[in-house]
Amino acid sequence: MRLNRTALAVAVSVTALATSHAAFAQDTTSATAAPQVDPAASDQDAAPGSEIVVTGTRVAGRTKFDTTAPVDVLSGASLRNQGTTELAASLSAIVPSVDFPRSSAVDGTDSIRPATLRGLSPDQTLVLINGVRAHTSALLNINGSVGRGATAVDLNTIPAVALDRVEVLRDGASAQYGSDAIAGVINLRLREARSGGGANFTYGGYFTDVTTARGDRNAHDGRTATVSGWQGFALGKEGFLTLSAEYLDRDPTSRGDYDPRKTPIRVRSRFGDPDVDQYSLYANAGLPVGGGWELYAFGGYQHRNSISAATPRINGGTDNNANAAALAALYPDGFLPLINVRSSDLTSTGGIRGDIGGWKIDFNLSYGRNKLTFYTDNSGNSTYGSASQTRFYDGTLTYDQIVGGVDVSKELALGSGTLNVAFGGEYRREGFAIGAGEHASYDRGPAATSSLGSGAQGFPGFQPSNVVDQHRSNVSGYLDLEAKPISALTIGAAVRGEHYSDFGDTVNGKLSARLELAPWFALRGTASTGFRAPSLQQEYFTSTASVLSGGTIVESGLFPSISPVGRALGGKPLEPEKATNLSAGFVVRSGGFDLSVDGYQIKVRNQLALSENLAGASITTVLAQNNIFTVSQARFFINGIRSTAKGIDVVAHYRVRTANAGTFDLTAAGNVNDIKVTRVPAPVTILGTTYTLFSRQRIISFEEGTPRTKVVGTVEWSLGGFGLTARGSYYGDVTQPSSTGFAADDIHTGKHTIFDLEARYQPAKGLNLAVGANNLFDTYPDYVKVLSSRGAQLNSTGLVGFPYYSPFGFNGRYLYGRIGITW
C-alpha cells in the first residue's frame, strides 16, 4: 500500500508540474544516415515526441511515444551542459531510474564505478554502442559497494563529446538482445557528421564546508580540467567520418572524519574521489558503396590512470596496526596505501548494411577489450620490514569479447496494415584472464609472524595460484515480429534462443502491445522473460584481499565456486539468473505537453551474489587442507536469491515559446521503486559448523541500497544568446546496512534535495560561455555518527565521514566554468 500511495503522489505531482527537459529534445536523423550537421543548432529545436528511436523496436521511423515500452531519449547537449564530464553521472542527473553511487575505500571499484537502473544490479542492464553489445569491464566488484559481486560496463569509457544521443529502454529485453537486459537497455549513439566541429574547455572544483561527526572544516579540492573536441569529415559524396577526443585531469577529494586514534587528531584517510588522468579517442564512419549498401565502422580507445586510497595503517596511538609497526622504519607515523589502477579500454566495430529484394540486412563484427593493471604505492610488505619496497606491481585483469551478428528485416503488408519481420543470429566469444603480480606483492618474508598480512598492504598482488585464462562462447538466434493491423494498434512478439558452452541453453520471449484510443492518448504494455548469464569473472575470479571486518583489517580469499575450496564450502557450478518482467502504462500528448506513466514488476529468481565472508575454525581448517595458511576468511559466488522489484516511472514534459520571454522547457520525472528479497540460499554446514551465506546485511543492500524515490525537476530557458538550466533532484533515504545484524546500527543517507544551476551566454556566433554550480547549496548526506542509538561504534576510526551508498555522492558544492567554440 505504501508503494501505491507514494507512486500515486509522484504521478499526480509530476502531472501537475507539466514539465519537460531539453534532455528529451532530439532531432529526427536516422541512425544509418550521414547527416549534414549544423554545429550551432540547438537540440531544443526538435518537436516534442518526434525523436526517432532504434532501441526496443526493429521498425524504422518509430518515435519514443510510438513504442510499446518506455524509452528515454537524451540529447548529447543535455549530457554535456552539466558540470560533470562523466557520462554515468550525467545520465544519473537526468534519468530518475538511473543511479551512480560514488563509492570510496572499496579498492578497484573506486576507479571503475558501476551505474544501476531501477535499483537492480549493475550487470542486469545491457549497454549497446550504436546498437552493438558493449563489453564489460574486467573488474569484479568484490567489496562493500552498491553492486557488490557485479561485473558491469564502465559507462565512463565513452566520452560525452562523442555522443549524439543516448536511448534508455526501461523494460526487460532479453528476448530482443540477449543476456543482461533484465532491468533494461542503454544504447549509446555516436555523432554522425560530414562537416563542422567544436571544442570545449571545462574547469571546476569543490568549494565546500564539510561537517562530520567530529568537527567541521573547509575543503577546496577535486580540481578538474577537461578538454574535448570533435570534427566531421566528408568521405566521398555521401559518407562521413566523425572524430572525437577528450582529456581529463582530476585531483582527488577527501571527505573522511577526524581520526581520534592518535594525537594530533586529524583526517588521516582519503575517503572520496580518486585522482584521475585519462584520455579518450572515438571515431564513427559510414561510406555508401553503391547499390544501396553502406560500409560502417566505429570504435574508440581510452586510457585511464586512477589513484584511490585504501585504509590508513596507523603506527602507535590507541589502535596500533601490527603491519604499520613492522614498517615503522619506512613510515614512522604509519601510512596510507594508494591503489593505482590503469585501465586500457578498446572498442572496435565494422559492418556492412544494405538491401536485398526489399530485405534490410546488416552484418557486423566487433571486438572489445578492457585491461586493468594494478599497482600499490606508498605501501610496503610488512613481512619484509625495513627492507620492503614501497611500490608494487600487483598484476592484471583482462576481459575481451568478439561479437559477430547478422540482422534481417522487412516490412510486409498485413491487410490494411503492416507486419515487420525481423530475425537474425549472433556469435559471441568471451575471455577472462588474471595475470600475477611481482613476487614481493603477494609473498611473505622468511621471518613473518602470523599477525602480519601477506604482500603489499592495501592491495596484495595476484598470486601464481590466482592466474586463470578462461573462455566461453555462445550462439543465439531471434525472431521479432511487430504488427500494426490498424493504425491505432501495435502488437509485438519476440523469441530468442541461446546456447552457452558452459551452462547450456536458454529461451526467452516477449509480448507487447500499444493501443491509441485517441490522437492524444495511448495505452501500452509488455510481458517478457529474461536472463543473465554468470560472467566469466564471477565463475573464475580468485584473489586474496585486505578487508575491514569489525574494525580490523583481515585477509580474505575469494574462490571460484567450483574450485576445491569453493566446493568444500558448498559451492556449485553457477547458473544463469532468470527474470519475468511485466509493465503497463499510458502516454499523453497535446501540443507542447506530453506525459508518460509506466508501472512495472520485475521478478528475478536464481539470482547470483557473493557469499558472506566465512570465518572460524572450520574455515581455516578447510583452507589449510588446501595449503592456504595466510587467509582467515573465505567467500564464493552462489545462486538462489529471489527478489521482486515493483515501481512506477513518470515523465512529464511541457515546452512553450513566448514572443518576448524566450523558450521554456520544463520537466518533472520521477521513479518510485520497491525491491523485496523473497528467498535466500539456505545456510551451509562445514565441519559441524553452520554458516549463513546471505545475511541481513546483503538483503538490506539489495532492498534499500538505492533510493526508493527519486524525482528530478528541470527548467531550461533560452532567449537570444542567453540560456539557463536549473535542476532540483530529490533523493529518498538510502540504507547502508551494518554488519552487526542490528537495524539500529544501519547508516542512513537521509532524504535530500540537490540543486544545480548553469547559465550560458553566446557573445558571438560559434562562441559559448557557461558558468554553473552542481549542488549549489552544498548539501551532504547525513554524516556517519560515532555511536548508534544502541551505543555500538559506527565511526571509531574516522575513516568514513559519510555513507558511501549515497546516490548523489558526498563531495559538496562544485563550481565550474566552460568555454566552447563551434565551427
Structure description:
This protein has 823 residues and is mostly beta strands. The protein has a single domain, classed as Maltoporin, Chain A (Beta Barrel), CATH 2.40.170.20. It is 8% helix and 49% strand. The chain contains 9 helices and 39 strands. The strands form 7 sheets. It has a 22-stranded antiparallel beta barrel. A hairpin with a 2-residue loop joins β15 and β16 (359-377). Residues 1-48 have low confidence and may be disordered.
Task: Give a quick set of tags describing it.
22-stranded antiparallel β-barrel; Maltoporin, Chain A; disordered N terminus; mainly beta; 9 helices; 823 residues; 8% helix
Outline:
By secondary structure, the chain is mostly beta strands. A hairpin with a 2-residue loop joins strand 23 (543-549) and strand 24 (552-558).
Could you name the CATH topology? Answer: Maltoporin, Chain A
- The best one-word shape is globular
Q: Note the main sheet.
A: 22 strands, antiparallel, barrel
Structural class of the helices, strands and pairings? mainly beta
Mean pLDDT: 91
Low-confidence stretches: 1-48
Number of helices: 9
Please report the total strand number as a whole number: 39
User: Strand fraction band?
Assistant: over 45%
